[in-house]
Design a protein that fits this description.
The chain has 8 helices and no strands. The chain has 200 residues and is mainly α. The protein has one domain. Helix 7 runs antiparallel to helix 8 (171-191).
Length: 200
């Protein structure tokens, strides 16, 4: 009999597919508005703005160093799922501009929508034993080992990244961006509880 606390391969596949699609849509919103975000995605966005390189390839490369750390601390299953999620997100952000465009998107509402969509994507990944790499791996490790909420860890990292972003984009853009990132992390902090949801 299957363990009811363990997701099946099919459940993991749909969870990762859902998360990658929602995360890619969030990146579409973010880059359309010229906003930034935190974590490794934020680092990739800033690099893409400065260099003109596409977000997808940059995000994929930025995450490479974290796979070994993820394997060492979280295991092969987590690392493989995370690699697949990152690869799917990277690929989707390269093709989605041909599928989705915005005639008008208010900056404030776009920041909120980005936060909600991205928060839902990360929750799905966390609940299926994966992440989008980078600081997300570190955040999950700290939560599992020390009980520190993953959302709070990521919020602290984001604060540093946004300070750097001030040298690249203007203050209003950073403030709207911080709103979106705060919603992402608050969504995770409030909803991701191992004592309430234990399936992996």
């Amino acid at each position: 009999m299957a363990d009811p606390k363990t997701h099946s391969l099919t459940e993991d596949a749909q969870g990762i597919a859902f998360a990658a699609t929602m995360a890619a849509f969030g990146i579409m919103i973010l880059t359309h508005l010229g906003l930034v975000t935190g974590q490794t995605a934020g680092l990739a966005v800033l690099i893409s703005y400065v260099t003109g390189w596409g977000f997808g390839p940059v995000f994929f490369v930025v995450n490479i160093p974290f796979y070994a750390f993820g394997y060492w601390r979280m295991g092969a299953r987590f690392m493989i799922k995370t690699f697949l999620a990152v690869a799917a997100l990277s690929g989707l952000t390269m093709v989605m501009p041909g599928w989705v465009s915005f005639a008008h998107l208010d900056t404030g509402f776009g920041a909120v929508l980005f936060g909600l969509v991205s928060g839902a994507a990360l929750l799905a990944l966390f609940r299926h034993g994966a992440s989008l790499g980078g600081i997300g791996i570190v955040a999950l490790i700290l939560q599992d080992r020390f009980g520190i909420r993953a959302g709070w860890v990521q919020l602290g990292f984001d604060a540093v990244l946004f300070a750097v972003a001030l040298a690249i984009v203007d203050l209003p853009t950073v403030l709207w961006s911080f709103l979106g990132a705060a919603i992402v992390n608050l969504t995770i902090a409030i909803n991701h509880r191992r004592d309430r949801y234990v399936a992996t």
